[in-house]
Amino acid sequence: MIRPVTPADVPAVVAMVYELAEFERELDKCHLTEEQLTAALFGPDPRVFCHVAVSSDDLPIGMALWFLTYSTWEGTHGVYLEDLYVRPAARGTGAGKALVAALAQVCVERGYPRLEWAVLDWNPARQFYDALGAGPKSDWVPYRLAGAPLTALAASLGAATP
User: Based on the structure, what is the number of domains in the chain?
Assistant: First the structure.
């Protein structure tokens, strides 16, 4: 079963984020806390959303953490899937497909034409995504500005540093 996340699910979702970070060989870069995620999901102006796949005893076995994007060309929002994770014991049960289908349903119901995400080039989940009908975007190269270069650029305009 897929359902929106509840405050009681936050510890399990944070744990899954750390499991995903370990799988992606980036555990040392993961600093998410339960307090941060609770504020992001359930604060006065949520900008992050989450669906969980739950077992028959209502325990989270997978999660899809997402947020809205906006396309100036389409003139409407879309969904960006930040993290999709299904615990190893629950893989092959259809939980991952159901989570992505739930986000596709959000898009269709709201008139959003895009559901997008990024996946590491070595991740075997690419076969799963291909089977869903998704395809890689080869004409766009992701960029990121973070850390010292972000701070330096902000300071170059006299902006406050974080």
Answer: 1
Length of the chain: 162
CATH number of domain containing 101: 3.40.630.30
pLDDT at residue 121 greater than cutoff 90: no
Grade residue 140 by pLDDT with cuts at 50, 70 and 90. confident
Q: Does residue 60 form part of some domain? A: yes
Catalytic-role residue among 18, 80, 129, 143: 129
Q: For residue 18, give Cα distances in angstroms to 41, 96, 143.
A: 17, 18, 23
pLDDT at 139: 84
Enter the pTM of the model: 0.89
- Catalytic, 70? Answer no
Q: What is the DSSP string of the chain?
A: -EEE--GGGHHHHHHHHHHHHHHTT-GGG----HHHHHHHHHSSS---EEEEEE-TTS-EEEEEEEEEEEETTTTEEEEEEEEEEE-GGGTTTTHHHHHHHHHHHHHHHHT---EEE---TT-THHHHHHHHT-----S-------HHHHHHHHHHTTPPP-
State both tokens at 49. Answer: 């959303």
